[in-house]
């Protein structure tokens, strides 16, 4: 989802305070470039500890005030701070939150906004968010990630590594309860184009069916992993599991890790 001009100004300003343990995440992190259907409603910064939440907020607030922004704190508790930042009649919500350091990939650096959670981990976080809450913006985001980052079946499979309380089918059962929205639900969002409810529903049902088919054929011993193609050099949803030389299994860990790539013999 593209950021508003005001959000972009704030994100660029705060980029100098971003570090590997204080990075942009959430919806704004998923699509900070203008290539999605909706605008983000806030800026989310994730941190590896409650203490880091507090110190990052202090640093960011000092920088904002120095640049003549107003900061109205709406909530301040251990591990979570929410603030409305405004200037010249424009405003946005910013959240500083504690999140697990367990991830599939290391955080990455973007020149425009500093350190940011890797798209793969943003995608996994989003599918778990949709399972836990019925928000139209989450549904749009998951459809976007399915089409542009990783198919939803592979998302659900990997998400069970981050949240071992799920298995793919139980996660899908929760997702099947989502998507029952009306036109008015999407009118409350700041969209770049209108939503066709009929097309959206058909697409969502087809995605769920495809995901369930994948969950039923994937090897149970691989649960919680991602599959990285050694041929096209990206994370994939395998269509078969006979020739494992076509991909490598990639599991998450605290801090994330880059896949160890062994070149495929047919990649030259």
Salient structural properties:
268 residues, alpha+beta, 3-stranded antiparallel beta sheet, disordered C terminus, 12 strands, 9 helices, Nuclear Transport Factor 2, Chain: A
Oligomer: single chain
Identify the overall geometry.
Answer: globular
Q: What is the count of helical runs?
A: 9
**Which structural class matches the secondary elements?**
alpha+beta
Task: Assign a percent range to the helix content.
Answer: 25-40%
Number of beta-strand segments = 12
Instruction: Characterize the largest beta sheet: strand count, sense, and whether it forms a barrel.
Output: 5 strands, mixed
Order of helices and strands: HEHEHEEEEEEHHHHHHEEEE
Mean pLDDT: 91
Strand content: 15-25%
Tell me the radius of gyration.
Answer: 19 Å
Describe the 3D structure:
The structure is a single chain. The chain has helices at 5-14, 26-30, 50-66, 119-132, 136-148, 152-162, 168-175, 183-187, 197-217, and strands spanning 22-25, 42-47, 70-77, 80-87, 90-98, 102-103, 108-110, 114-116, 226-229, 234-236, 247-250, 253-254. The chain is α+β, with helices and mostly antiparallel strands and 268 residues long. It folds into 2 domains: 5-117, Nuclear Transport Factor 2, Chain: A, CATH 3.10.450.620; 140-254, no CATH class. It is globular and about 60 Å long.
Gist of the model:
The protein is of the alpha+beta class and 268 residues long.
Give the SSE layout.
Elements: H1 5-14, E1 22-25, H2 26-30, E2 42-47, H3 50-66, E3 70-77, E4 80-87, E5 90-98, E6 102-103, E7 108-110, E8 114-116, H4 119-132, H5 136-148, H6 152-162, H7 168-175, H8 183-187, H9 197-217, E9 226-229, E10 234-236, E11 247-250, E12 253-254
Parallel strand pairs: 2-5
Antiparallel strand pairs: 1-2, 3-4, 4-5, 6-12, 7-8, 9-10, 9-11
Helix pairs in contact: 4-5, 4-6, 4-7, 6-7, 6-9, 7-9
